[in-house]
C-alpha cells in the first residue's frame, strides 16, 4: 500500500541536486502500484548521433521504479536500492519528450519488481524496462 500522505510536489523535491534534475526528469502522477514521469529529448539526454541516449532511458526507468518502490515502504526503517535493471530499446527519437509509466509487478517485503514503458508523445514505444528493487533495512 502506498503512502497516502505524500504529494507529487514532495516527490519532485527528491530530484533536487541529483542526476534526475540534471536530465530534466519530472514526475507527473502516481498512485497505488504505479508512477509516471517525463523527460526531455535534448542536449542533456542525447548521445553523439543526436538520438535519445539509451542510458538516459534507463535513468528514467530506474528513477521511476526506485521512487515507486520507496513510496510503498516505511522510509524511516527501509531503503530501496536497485538490484537489477534491463532495457529493450525499441525506437529512436531525436527531439521532444518521452513519457514513462512504471507499474509494480510485485511488491514484497524484501524485493519489488517494476516494469516501465517509455513512449513518444504519440504513444509509440521507445523502451521497455524491468527493474528489481531490493528493500533493505536502514542502518
TrEMBL record:
<feature type="domain" description="Thioesterase">
    <location>
        <begin position="49"/>
        <end position="127"/>
    </location>
</feature>
<keyword id="KW-0378">Hydrolase</keyword>
<dbReference type="GO" id="GO:0016787">
    <property type="term" value="F:hydrolase activity"/>
</dbReference>
<comment type="similarity">
    <text>Belongs to the thioesterase PaaI family.</text>
</comment>
<dbReference type="InterPro" id="IPR003736">
    <property type="entry name" value="PAAI_dom"/>
</dbReference>
<protein>
    <submittedName>
        <fullName>PaaI family thioesterase</fullName>
        <ecNumber>3.1.2.-</ecNumber>
    </submittedName>
</protein>
<dbReference type="Pfam" id="PF03061">
    <property type="entry name" value="4HBT"/>
</dbReference>
<dbReference type="InterPro" id="IPR029069">
    <property type="entry name" value="HotDog_dom_sf"/>
</dbReference>
<dbReference type="InterPro" id="IPR006683">
    <property type="entry name" value="Thioestr_dom"/>
</dbReference>
Amino acid at each position: 500500500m502506498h503512502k497516502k500522505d505524500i504529494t507529487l510536489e514532495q516527490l519532485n523535491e527528491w530530484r533536487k541536486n541529483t542526476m534526475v534534475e540534471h536530465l530534466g526528469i519530472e514526475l507527473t502522477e502516481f498512485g497505488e502500484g504505479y508512477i509516471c514521469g517525463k523527460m526531455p529529448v535534448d542536449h542533456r539526454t542525447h548521445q553523439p548521433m543526436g538520438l535519445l541516449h539509451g542510458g538516459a532511458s534507463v535513468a528514467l526507468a530506474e528513477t521511476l521504479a526506485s521512487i515507486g518502490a520507496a513510496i510503498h515502504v516505511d522510509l524511516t526503517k527501509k531503503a530501496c536500492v536497485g538490484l537489477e535493471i534491463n532495457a529493450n530499446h525499441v525506437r529512436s527519437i531525436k527531439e521532444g519528450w518521452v513519457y514513462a509509466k512504471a507499474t509494480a509487478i510485485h511488491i514484497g517485503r524484501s524485493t519489488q519488481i517494476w516494469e516501465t514503458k517509455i513512449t513518444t508523445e504519440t504513444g509509440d514505444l521507445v523502451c521497455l524496462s524491468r527493474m528489481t528493487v531490493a528493500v533493505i533495512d536502514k542502518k
